[in-house]
Structures are given as C-alpha cells and as structure tokens.
Amino acid sequence: MPTLKTASTRKAKRHDKLARWVITLGGIIVIASVVAILALIVGVTIPLFRTPTANVVCTCRLPESLPIDDVLQLGIDRDLDDTRVTGFVWSRSGAVAWIDLRTGKLIGQEQLSPPGGNARSTLRQVESLGVGKYSLSWSGGAASLVEIVPQRANRKETHATRYVIRSLATIPASKNQESQQILVRRSETGAITQATRLPDATIAILREVTTETLMGDEEVSTHRSVLRDDIIARVCTMTMGREGNTLYAGTDDGRLIRWQLDEEGQLARREVIRAYSDGRAITALALVLGDVSLAVGDAKGQLTTWSPVNADGTRKLRAIHELQPHHGPIRAILPSGRNKSIFSLGEDGVMHLDHMTSERHLLSIGPEESRPICQVALGPRGDTLLGLDASGVMTAWQIDGGCPEISLKTLFGKVSYEGYDSPEYVWQTTGGEDFEPKYSLVPLIFGTLKGTFYAMLFAVPIAVFGAMYVSYFTTPGFRRTIKPVVEIMASVPSVVIGFLIALWLAPIIGHWILAFFASLIVVPATFVVFMAAWQLLRRFHWAKRVENGYEFLIVLPVLLGGVGLAVCLAAPLEAWFFDGNFQRWLFEGPLGMQYDQRNNIIIAFGLGFTVIPIIFSIAEDSLSNVPYHLTAASMAVGASRWQTLWRVVLPSASPGIFAAMMIGFGRAVGETMIVLMATGNTPILDWSPLNGMRTLSANIAVEIPEAPVGGTLYRVLFLCAVLLFLLTFTVNTAAELVRQRLRKRFGRF
Amino acid sequence: MLSLVCALLAVVTVNGLGVYWPSQVAEVTLADGTKFLGRMIRSEVNPDTDKMSVQFKVGNREQDPQRQDFRWIRYDAILAITYPAEVYVLERVENGDFYGYLKDTAGPDLARLSGIPVAEAFPKALGSVRSKSSEEIAPISKKLLSLGNELQKTQDKILRLTYRRDRLLADSRSGNQSRASDVDRQIAELQASSQKIKEQSDRLVGQQQLRLADLRRDAVVMTNPAGKETSIALVDIVRFHDPNAMGFWAKSRYYLSRIGELLWENPRESNTEGGLFPAIFGTVMLIFLMAIACFPLGVLAGIYLGEYAKEGFLIRLVRIAVNNLAGIPSIVYGIFGLGFFVYGVGGLLDQWFFPERVASGTPTFGTGGILWASLTLGLLTVPVVIVSTEEALQAIPRAAREGSFALGATKFQTLVRVLLPTASPGMMTGFILAMARAAGEVAPLMITGVVKLAPQMPVDGDFPFFHLDRKFMHLGFHIYDVGFQSPNVEASKPMVFVTTLLLLIIVLAMTSVAIYLRNRMRRRYQVRTI
C-alpha cells in the first residue's frame, strides 16, 4: 500500500503527536492534583508530631574575672534577628555582668547595692521570675525585686545595645535573723508579697498594698503575719504564685504544703498532702505558666504536676501529669513563659524539656559532649536556653519547631486539663495568655457523625422510597418531571438552605416543636387509617385508576392532613401533659434536655435537603438499570409489583442503593455552610437531637481566620481537613468500587 | 420531595419579592393617647407577653432611644388604625426610613417655592438640590478619588525605594553608600509630591465640606402624628414615596426603581440597605475567572480519559480519583487553597516581586484575593467538567469515529472535526453545571479572600485595570454575613431574602439551561442511533 507523504499528512501527524502529548499532560495534571492536595495538607500537619530540636547557637567560656563558684544565676536575651546573644551572670558579690555570648567578651557590669545600706551583705539567692525579672535575697535577710531592661540606642535599632537594672521593690531585713529562703512577688496591681522561711520553723509573710486614696495620693499599707507550723522545719523548697496569694512548699519526707493567703497576707487555708508514701525528698518546685499547676521534682528524679481538683466539696491537690523521669534528683524546674512546657535540670546535668498537657518528652540536652550542666536560664521568648557547665563553658541553645501541646493522646484521648475535675474531651482553643489550649478532636468528630446520622435518618427513607416509587410505580410523565426537579434541588446553594433553615425554619420548628414530635406518631397513624380506608375504596373504578401511577395525588393531601392534625393536637397536648410549656418541661422534667433553637432537627432538614437529591438520583439509576427481563419474568410468574420490587429488583440493586447512601453520607459529612449557619457551633458531646454541635468542617471555617499561619491551631485545622478528606475518600472509593462492579454486571449506566 | 422544592422556592420568592413592594403605612392610635406611624408586619402571640400582639416596623430610628426598628403593640392597647393619604416615607442615607407628614420646605435656595403647596414643592426642591449636588459635589468627589489613587501609588513607590535603600545600607560593599543616598534623594522627592497631593486633597475635602454644608441648609420639615417637627436635609434623602396615596402603577414604578437600585448601586448602612452591585460583580467575575482556569484543564483531562488513555488498572484508579475529587468537601478545597495558593504560591510571588510589602506586613498576593479564590473554585469544579466531557464523548456512536478513521483522518483530526462538535452540547452542560456549583459555593471562599465590604472592585479604570490580588464581595457570603453577622438581624432580614432570591435565580437559571441542553442532546442521539 503506498503511503501518502504530502505536507498536509505530515502536518496532521505532527499535530496528532502534539495533541497526544498535551492531552496526556492535562490528564496527568488532574490526577497529580488529587495526590497533591492530600500531600500538601498532610505536609502541613506533619510538624505537629515532630519533636523539637535544640541547636547550639554559640558557646563561650566564662570570663576570667567571674569564678564559676561565684555564679548564682544566669539569664539570656536574644535579638529577633539573632545578631546578638547576651548572657547575664549574677554573682555572689551582688554584681550582674552581661556577656556577648558570641565572642565571650564582657560587655558591662553593674554592682547592686544591698537594701538597708549594709554594704557587707552579699547575694545568697537569685530567683528568675521570667521576662527579665529577678527576685534577690541578700545575706542578712533583705530582699529586692529587680528587672533587667534592654535599652536601644534609638527607636530604629532592632537590638539592645545596653542593659540597665531597674529596681521594682526593696524590702529591708526586718529581724536580725538569717533566712533560709526568701520569695518576693509583685502582683499586677503592684502589691508586693514576701515570704521568708526562717530557721525557727516559721515563715514570715509581709505584704505591701499600694492603694490610691480619693485625693489621688498613694497610700502604702503593710501587713505582716507569721505562719507557724512544725512541718516548716522539714521544708526544703518553696515557691509562690505570681500574685503572691498561694505559697507552696515541699518537705524532705515527701509532703506538699499549700498555704492560701488572703488580701492582707493572713493565712486563709492550709493543706498538707503526702505526695509520696516512700518519704522521698521533694527537691524542686515551680508553678507552670498560669499558676494553676505545680510542677514537683523529687529526689528520685520523678517530675510530676499537681493541681487543685474538686473532691468531696473542697479543692485538693492531686497529681495530674507524670513526665519523663530523670536519673538523679531534680535540681531545678524552669517553667516556660510561653506555654505549658517545663524545663527541668537533674543533678546529673541533663536538661529535659517536657510539655505538661500532652505529657510529651520533647528533648534532652547534655551531657554527652559537654560536662554536666549546673546552671540554666531561659530566654524571654521561651525558645532560647543558656546552660553553664561545671568547667565554666556557657552554651546557648535555640529550641526549634514542634507543637509541644499536640500528641495523639491530646487529639483523641481524654486529658486532664487545669480546672477540670476529671479527664475529658474538650475543644477550646482561645483564651488568655496563660490559657491551656485544648485540642481534642473527639467532640468535633462526634458532632460530625451526630449531624450526619440524624440527617441520614431523615434523608435515606425519603430518597430511597422516592427512588423506588419513581422507578417502578409512577407514570413516565411524572418521572420525566421529577428528574429535573431533583437536579434543581441538588443545585440549590447550601448557603441558601442554611439561611432558610436557620432564620425561617428554626423559629417555626421552635414554636411547633411538640407538633413536630406528635407528627412522628400522628402521620404514620393517619397513613395506616388511610390504607385501611383505601381497601374499601378500591372497589370503585376511579380508585383503581389512581393506583396506576397517580398515588401521589392522594397521598399528598393525606400527608398534609396528618401534619395538620398534629399541629391541632399540639396545643391541647401541651396543656394536658406538659404544664402548658413543652420546652420548659423538657428542661425541668424527667428528661432534663436543653432545647436550643438551632438544633440537630433543623440540621437534619437542611443536610437532608442537600443529600436527598444525590441519594435519590444514584439509587434511581441503579434501580431502573436492573435488566428488564428480570422484572418481566417475575411479573410473568404472577408476582405483584410490590413482590417484584422487594424480591427481585431490590436484591440486585441493593449495592447501588448502598453506594448512593455512602456518597450521600460523604456529602453530609463535609457540608459546611448549613452547619455553620444553623447550629450554635458548640463543641459538646451529647446525642440529644435538641441541641447543636460543631462539625469538623464548620470548625475549620470558624477558626481558620484567627489561626496564625504555621501555628499549632493552624496545623490542627489542617489535620481536621485531612480527617475529612480521609473520611470522604474511603467512603467515596468504596461506593465507587461498588458501582464499578455493578456496571460490569449490568452493562454501563 | 417535589413539595420540598416547591416549598423552598415559594418561601424565598414570597419573602424576596415582597420586600420592596410599598405597603401601606398605618397611623396607630394607642389607648394612652399616643400616636405613631408604622407598617404592620405580622400579628401573633408575642412570646414575651403571652398576649396577641401586632408587630410594626417603625422608622425614625434616631428618635427612638433604643434605636429599634420594630415595636410590638398589644391588641387591647390599640384604639384605632387609619391610613392617612398624606403619609410620606423618606428613605435616607443614614438611619433608615423616616415616616411622617410633609409640612414645609425650607432653605435659602427654596424661597421661590414658598407659594406652591408643599406636596408639589417637595419633589421640585429635591430635584434642584440633587442637580446642584451632581454639578458641584460630584466633580470634586471624582477628583478626590483620582488623587487618592495617585497618593496610594506614590506611597507604594516610597515603600519600594525605602526597602531598596535599607537593603543597600545593610550590604556594606563599596558604592552602595552613594547609591543609597541617590535612592534617598528620590524618596525625598516622592515624599514632597505625596505631601503636595495630600494638601491638594485636603483642600478639596474642605471645599466639599463647605458645599455640603451649604446644601444641607435646604431641608424639608416633617411632622409626626404628635405634631413634632423634624427637619431633614434634602441631600440625605435617597428616595421618597407616599404609599397610601399611590395607585398600582405608581407602586410598580417605585418597585422597579428599587430593583434597579438593588442591581446597580453600592450597599449602605453596613450592607443592610442599598444595592448589591459589588457582590453581583464579584460573583460574576469569580465565576468568569474560575471558568478560564478550569475548563481547558477539565476538557483536556476528559478527552484524555475518554479517548487517549488505555483501559487498565491505572485508568480505573484515575476514574476513582476524579470521582473522589467531586466528593471531597468544599472546605477541604478551601483549606488547600489557603495553604497552597495563598501562602504557597502567593507568598512566593510576593517574595519575588513585592519584598517591600512583605516587610511592611501588607502582602499583595500572600493574602486572600479573587485570583486565589477562583483558582480554588476551579479545582473544585474540574471533576464536573471532566466527567461531563468524558460522558459526552462516550455517548457518540462508534460509527462516527470509525467513519472518520476510514477516511484517513488522524486521531487528532477526528477529535477536532468530528467528536468535539458532536460532544459540545454535553460539554456545555458540564460547563454550566460547574458554573452553577461555583456560584453557590461559599465555604472555600470564606478562607480564600471574600470580604463583607470591599473598598475597591477587582476591575476598574486604574492601570492595569484587572486587580486580581484584590479582595471581593460575593452574593453567597453576603447572605451569610448580613444574615448572621450583622448587629441588627431582624432589620436586615429583607435584604438577605432579596440576596437569596437573586442567588437562587442565577443558579437555577444556569442549571435549568444545562438540563434543557442535555435533554435536547439525548433526544438527538436517540434518533440517530436507531
């Protein structure tokens, strides 16, 4: 056969090849995009579970002028752009020195004069209170509260060029007695509280409250009190809340003491509990951010957090979380100033970083490459750590990434949160600065399933029976009209449905709620009565004609009549049985259910409206695609229409109907606007159809505008999207496989 | 089911269409002797008092201490209800409607109207004030707008140059210092010119204020049933009508003018009054952009699946994937759009082209905008196009294909000359369905750039005319926002119903056309294959 080799065929072939490439490429792009969507969303969520890393920013030696034994406390400040890392070193002489940690050079030094003018007194303890604040206790019993303030050369400068020390409060020694530990706190309102543990087993409390008089003058009132207790002799460590109202102490035989102080520093409540029965010593105490939970470190290296829990009418300290233990006694605990993370330093020189809520052990630092760490300090943003080891080398670490509050347990398990008496599933993401975010996805998944369940309860019978009726009983003319109507129903935007059911239907249902419940019984009852009556009517010729596909003309008035009857019955029912107010009866009566106007019944209607057309059209397809010879054979052996449908058609079409339900389910799960508009969006765990819920999809829409990009909430919301994706993906794939199998069996449809 | 659809359509239509029909205003005399004007809304047992009560919509919001728009009056408290023909309803720029009786027109320019009856004088006065305002104030406003644009541009330039200078200064190579001082000089020039523009616009604003104050002196004096006089500046009146005196045709004319306002004007009073033009425009523009993004891709993929791909395990997987794409919740697309388009692609574009704006915290593409929203929607609707293209191709009888091949046509030629023309109605159906779905989706838009009030349209007279980075308004979001986020839900309900009706009309019209097209196509093939 001679081949044509003209220019036009060559051109045509070239075009053909090109087109093949382009088209194949287009097809592959679409396929790739499915994968890409999942990959991207999953990619965003991965950092949720990554453990943070600690990277060394810089190391340097302690300057010669500062002997290591003199160092009492460290501090660190780091600029945003990382150009300068400054360390502070407090030494016994009462001097603070700042050191450029990149070069190891001393930048400056300032000598503090002890309060009370006793020039010979030296610093005994320095406690870091976070954000550059330190409480100092001097030998001789004086104490002071100071703040290290970075100074910028000018406003444009991003990094601090020098630091000044500002004194916030000074409290001169009151008794000439050497104290064992002094704690000083300054509350937000400026009240200063000092607790001094003295060797004679007492704790002296001093509170200075500054009030403004009517004249506008400031008046300082000083309150003093003494806590006397035998147990104080055994106390080895103490800590106090930021406001100075609660004082905690741990003893050398494993007991914890909590003193509650009132406005004037007087003892209001005292609680002693035996934390450990084996009598181990408690070596370190610190309050986790928010001052609700107490972190306790002991001589056996165990680190636990305790918080007050309601038990028999009183609030008692209970051990809530247990974190990764150390190998030796715990020397110090440093709560992060940003979240509920806790740094702890063991006697063996190993640092741990743990998160309280998730009980995740985030990282351990040291001492493989360096000597044991003996002093640590935390930067103001909570992401920088400064450690000093026994050989006098200072190391600054940068702690990167991770969402410490997230673990599988916090997402899907019951967690004990601060202020809750027992472990619970809670979703609550916003609150104050020291708020404990609660990221349990369980209420959301529950809400999604609950909403979908009631919607399917409403939609499946209507859609499936509708499909059966339309495909086997009705006239072809009616069938031709109903199909486009269903398609139009499918195309009604969900925002329209959501708006209507929330602002139009919800008040109506709320008003006629009893009628609604009554109609659940009355409407089927009227149907039964009607059926019985119809058997009598069938003897007439016109009635038989109705049976050939025009049943809906008769049934519709019956249905409306049933609803009408229910509405009429509602008022007398309410008066007789429910004291004239059904909603009040629901709440106060034996059921004790709260009625929300935007509830799950409303949602069922709304979601049902979107799901019915989908289920209907797929179910109708699969029903009418059952081969004609099967139904014809059944009819031929004398089966009635109903028998044919029930015994022949339904069994062969049931996979298709099942697939229809699955796809409907997938659609209901992901519907956003209706749920967003017509529920109160409260994440609660309650099966009652009379209150609302929050679904995964609505949750995304509600919270994403407030979620900082790259933050924990942002990533958790992406995780919600992943869950939704996986849920719908499995359901849809299953349905699709069923349909493909059906297609093979009955030819294409 | 049929009844469900009908019920829904009926509710929306009745509530939506009724909003603008001027119903009668009643003068209600209460048992305690006080009188007020209001429109009767409904009567029912008030849940608060358990008494049969009537709800009235009352105007004159600023005179009510609680600024309420509605009053519940108990049946037994009403002495009489009359419908005086002289009642006028003035629709104002602020504070909603004013119900009252015309008393007089007053003002320096209205002295010539003093002789004629007030009912005639009032429209004339309103007309003269309007023409004056369009003569004097409109040009100033126009100029102010263009000055504002110019100022914005200058400031953008300054921002860009400042960023460049900072970069130059941070890099201590030789010659950068002198270049930086060059840039500094340019900045100074621009700052001077922007200062000049600012002064100019300040001057214009002053002029505008002066003229307005001048115009505001022309007012109409209204009385309420109690006889209390209120003076309302004529420039504040948007429209007026006297519902009790209007005949059917007058009412119809009024109705049409309200519909016109709805379609072509900007919203007022935090979206609860005025028009919907920006929302309609935003919706149309969004669908248009979505179509550009999604149709070519969808058609390509559909052709690939239907004609080029070999049946096999992979293609089965692909089919499942495509059907799955259609089933993924729209909010998941939204969050994908946010993560990928807005923060991914948008962030990259910003880093390449507008680094100075990232530094100043006002990203251009790295925030929600109409481009990203439409691309997200495009992704969402691509499966619809793919499936319908594939189905349309499969519906073509094999004979057509084989005939073409037999004549020596290549696959591409067959596709372009034979298959695509035949399949076009089916593909068209897919397009329209995709557009209808896109018009009704709101959830993904909420996180990719829709806003309740967009100050600027995505298309305007400023170079480069299309501003795809801008945020936009959308009918569906308008429903959500006005119906659920507005402070005065009861008063804004009518507006929401109107918006709903409009959106439904758009979507249902598209769907109906698609269904009609498909049915026609089916009939054609049935005839042919027999």
Number of strands of chain B: 12
Q: Count of DSSP E strands of chain A? A: 30
Physical arrangement of strands within the biggest beta sheet of chain B: 4-3-2-1-5
**Structural class estimated from helices and strands of chain A:** alpha+beta
The shape of chain A is elongated
- Determine the CATH topology of the domain at 444-515 and 576-746 in chain A: MetI-like fold
What does the largest sheet of chain A look like?
4 strands, antiparallel
Roughly how much helix do the residues of chain A carry, as a percent range? 25-40%
Describe it:
The complex is a heterodimer of chains A (749) and B (530). Chain A is an alpha+beta fold and 749 residues long. Among the domains of chain A are: 66-179, Lipocalin; 444-515 and 576-746, MetI-like fold, CATH 1.10.3720. Chain A has 15 helices and 30 strands. In chain A, the strands form eight sheets. Chain A has a four-stranded antiparallel β-sheet, with no helix packed on it. In chain A, helix 1 crosses helix 15 (712-746) and helix 3 (442-472) packs across helix 10. The radius of gyration of chain A is 37 Å and the shape is elongated. Chain B is α+β, with helices and mostly antiparallel strands and 530 residues long. Chain B has two domains: 119-265; 277-529, Orthogonal Bundle (MetI-like fold), CATH 1.10.3720. Helix content of chain B is 61%, strand content 13%. Chain B has helices at residues 2-18, 118-170, 176-216, 248-264, 277-308, 313-327, 330-353, 355-359, 370-395, 398-406, 411-440, 443-446, 475-485, 489-529; strands spanning 26-30, 35-45, 52-57, 70-74, 78-82, 87-92, 97-106, 219-223, 229-233, 237-241, 267-268, 273-274. Classes of the chains: A alpha+beta (749), B alpha+beta (530). Chains A and B meet through helix 1, helix 3, helix 4, helix 5 and helix 10 of A and helix 1, helix 5, helix 6, helix 7 and helix 9 of B.
